[in-house]
Structure formats: C-alpha cells, structure tokens
Design goal:
It is a single chain. By secondary structure, the protein is an alpha/beta fold. It is built from 10 helices and 15 strands. Strand 1 and strand 2 form a beta hairpin. The model has no long low-confidence stretch (mean pLDDT about 95).
C-alpha cells in the first residue's frame, strides 16, 4: 500500500509518499481501507521528532480515519467486511489501509458522508473524555475553550451547547472569533488584541468560568487560574506554549480549584474502547440529530501531505482531511 513516511525529523517537507508493507488485522482488530484521515496537532509533533508513537502503535501518522472494513481478525464479531466505519487510531491513518482494535471503531453517523466522518473520532473522544468524563462539565455551567477555531475547539463549542453549557472561546483573529460565535459560542476573545482574563470577568459578571480547556500550557497557567470561578477546573490538553510555568498557588486555595490533564493516544486499548462507547452513547445522537457538525477547512489527496501540514500550521478553521 501507499503511506506517508517521515523521512527524517523536520518540517512538512520531510513527509514522503512511499510504498510500504500492508498491515493485517490481528487478534481483536479490523483492517480498514481508508477513505479519509484527518490531521491533528500531534501529527506535527511526531513529524518534528518530539512525540514518538506509544509502543505497539503504527509508526505512520494519523490518529483517526473513515473507511470500509476490508477484513476482521480473530475474536471480532461486532464488525464484518464491507461495513462503513470511522475509527480512533493510535497511528497509521496517513495510508491506504490501517489496522485498529475493534473497540475503537464507530459506525458512520446518519447524515454524515463517509469522507467527512474522518473528522469526528479524535475530537469527539478527546473532548468527551476530558471536559465531560474527567471534570464533569454539566448543564448550567460555563467553559472557556482556548483555540476555538481548531478541530477540537469547533467540535467542543457545538457539543457543549447541546449539553446546556455556556461557551466562551479564544482565537487568534476577529474573523475566527466571529466564526466561533456563528457555531454557537456565547462569547469570543481575540487573544492577540484582548486580555482573556479581563474579558472572561466581564462576560461572567466577575464570577469566572467553571471549566477551562487549555492547549497552551505553561504561559497560560496563572491567567487560567485567574479566569476560573469558585470550584473551577482547569484541564490541560496541550502544551503549545511550552510545558513549564510558575504557578501562584493562592487562587487554587482561595477558590478551591482543580488542575488536571491527560492525553488520549497513550491510553490503553481498554480505556479507549470505554471512551468510544461513551461517545457512541452521548455524542453520536447529537451528530445524527444535526446539532453537531464536522467543520472541514480543506481536503487534500494523500500525496499532498506536505501542503496539508503547511495548512495545519498556518491559518485554518476546523479540520483538514487527507484522502488516499
């Protein structure tokens, strides 16, 4: 099969389309003929040599896909060859075929095209497992989403609104702020021209938000604590600004704050299957009801992965897809 290979750590230009060995469906796995895969920020880190795949996962990029099951391995009874599916992957999506544990496979939501469904698994599993399963964001509360125009941000806006949550976002331009509000956000902050702590206080009448989903890390940690209200929860999902920051412990004690974080790729197969089941139960109905849509910015053929990565690192809104 053809797959995108990282020829050496570096920029987008190191990605090469090559002929590689076909994967096979092992015990408890299915083999998917890929129709589309979606790009994620972790792909950039892996390309740069800063994020090695966890042991046992494919060395190729790609954390989600959609496609048609070509074969099932021993012990798989839920799926069969010919089923149209999408899947949460540990890697391998930038290829014509990929094998994946059967518990990480989802049916294509009704009303969503096979291609576009590739943009759902990673964001849905990430958002649901973090701000809902782990910090228990609930109806009547408020959330601040950093990176509102990202794939995770555009999905989180929509799913949070379906659960009765008040949503605020930060983004890097007035245009992105406007687009996020059109998606359903209750308020937006251009972090390049505005202080998000001041704006959050203004938008919440000084109360602060209940939950923050952060992708920046160290440079934002103290400001995030300032923007949280009493019993607030900070969930750190990414470290785009760096992993280190000096923390003022005062607000944590004064406001009874909680700081937590997690990744998705490093979780066990069993844990991922549990998350996928929750997503199927709580998220898929909202998608099928038309309340949550995948926001796709651009679509590239697999051989144009270099251009797709440049777009990912540039100005985009929502998801970027690759199609073999």
């Amino acid at each position: 099969m053809k797959a995108i290979v990282i020829s050496r750590p570096g920029g987008p230009e190191v990605l090469e389309l090559r002929e590689v060995e076909d994967p096979v469906a092992g015990e408890g796995e299915v083999l998917i003929k890929v129709v589309a895969t979606a790009l994620n920020r972790a792909d950039v880190l892996q390309r740069e040599g800063r994020y090695a795949p966890p042991p046992g996962n494919s060395l190729y990029l790609g954390l989600e896909c959609s496609g048609i099951i070509e074969a099932v391995g021993p012990g798989v009874s839920k799926w069969k060859a010919g089923d149209k599916v999408c899947a949460l992957l540990g890697g391998g999506g930038y290829a014509e075929k990929v094998n994946v544990p059967a518990g990480q496979v989802l049916p294509i939501p009704k009303g969503v095209s096979l291609r576009d469904a590739a943009g759902f698994p990673e964001v849905a599993c990430t958002v649901w497992s973090t701000i809902f399963m782990m910090v228990h964001l609930k109806k009547g509360e408020s959330v601040l989403l950093h990176g509102g125009g990202s794939g995770i941000g555009t999905f989180a806006i929509q799913i949070a609104k379906t659960k009765g949550v008040k949503v605020f976002i930060t983004a890097g331009s007035d245009e992105k702020v406007k687009e996020c509000i059109e998606l359903g956000a209750d308020g937006g902050i251009n972090y390049k021209t505005e202080d998000f702590v001041e704006r959050v206080n203004a938008l919440t009448d000084g109360k602060g938000v209940d939950v923050i989903l952060d992708i920046v890390g160290g440079p934002y940690v103290n400001r995030n604590l300032e923007a949280l209200g009493k019993d607030g929860r900070l969930f750190i999902l990414g470290l785009q600004g760096g992993p280190k920051g000096e923390i003022n412990l005062g607000p944590i004690i004064a406001k009874r704050l909680t700081i937590t974080g997690a990744g998705l790729r490093v979780r066990t197969v069993e844990n991922k299957a549990q998350i996928v089941q929750e997503v199927l139960e709580h998220v898929w109905p909202e998608i099928e009801a038309g309340k949550v849509k995948v926001v796709i910015d651009k679509v590239y053929p697999l051989g144009k992965a270099v251009e797709a990565h440049r777009a990912l690192e540039g100005n985009h809104f929502g998801k970027i897809l690759l199609t073999p």
